[in-house]
Amino acid sequence: MINLKQIRIIFLLILISLSKNVEAEIHSLNDSSSFFSQNLDSTTSNKDGSTIVYICTGVYAEKYHSRINCTGLNNCKGSIISIDFFTAVNSNNRTPCCICYNCAGTSSGGGGGGDSNDDAVRYAALAIVVASAAVLSNDFYIYPVLSFKKPKDQFYKSYKTSTTGWAFGFRKTFQHCALEYGASNFKSSSQYSGWNGSYYTYSEDNTIWGIHMNFVHQIFYNKTADWLKFYTGPTVNLINYTDLGYGAIIGAEMKIKGRLKFDTRYELSTETNQIRAGLIFNYQKKYLWQKR
Question: Which residues have C-beta within 8 Å of that of residue 100, sequence separation ≥ 6?
């Protein structure tokens, strides 16, 4: 049987793994920051009548667009700026968006044929992780989430934002405590104002993914009824595969019936500020190898 000491070791190994991924992402972010500043200069000084295109400044953006309202920009993880065509192609290695341009029969400029194999490996690894978590865990949880975290952007000021979504995952329970690990998905609608040669505003809808790990411990468990438990503990999360956050959780869980519980919590970290309320279901009291 896995004890608390082993779980702490697993928790430490996962944090080390996350730090390696974040280190790699930081290099990508530095490259992105470099080309962003170059693009900002060309945007404000471009008065020679050259063709203007639009790009997303997100780390993984690869395309240029002919119009700012192109649906290909709906999932932009950064800001949308306008630059001249030659800068987009020659300096930033952007390829045309096939929604804006007729690029049938041409290469999309991805850089090789390894993407499909890479995706297959990623999905296989994800399936292994999820299956392993399901086997080693006791509970499954799912929450609707309301987030109050404003998007970070050093060039534009957001004056309206709305973020809702879902969080889900597994829990390994111990006496008076639990280790939680899962993912979250948010739909964020924001409106920005900025300066691009002239003052303008635009709207942006983003899909945001994140992963999290929490260790919660019951408090006052000797002073509350069996059906009501309060808890608190630390949380570590990774948002959009790049932003590592840490903070704390406080909440309460209530038994509904049998193995089903209602849970509500507040989470505040360097990357999150949200309220969750949902269900926890205990799907196995004994592990598969303990059942005979």
Answer: 65, 66, 67, 70, 72
All residues at 6 or more sequence positions from 23 whose CB lies less than 8 Å from its CB, including other chains: none
Instruction: Give the span between the Cα atoms of 50 and 149, in whole angstroms.
Output: 38
**Contact call for residues 7 and 179 (beta carbons, < 8 A):** yes
- What are the structure tokens assigned to 35, written together? 């080309």
Q: What are phi and psi of 46, to 5 degrees?
A: -80, 100
pLDDT digits (tens, 9 = 90+) for 44-56: 345 555 688 889 8
Exposed (0-12), middle (13-18) or buried (19+): which is 62, by Cβ within 10 Å?
A: middle
Strands 199-219 and 177-195: antiparallel
Cα–Cα distance between 99 and 121 in angstroms, integer? 28
**218 contacts 176 by C-beta, under 8 angstroms:** yes
Q: What digits encode the pLDDT tens for the residues 140-174?
A: 999 999 988 765 544 444 445 668 899 999 999 99
The number of residues making up the chain comes to 292
81 contact partners, CB below 8 Å, separation of at least 6: 36, 39, 40, 43, 54, 55, 57, 196
All domains in the chain, ordered by first residue: 137-290 (2.40.160)
DSSP state of 277: E
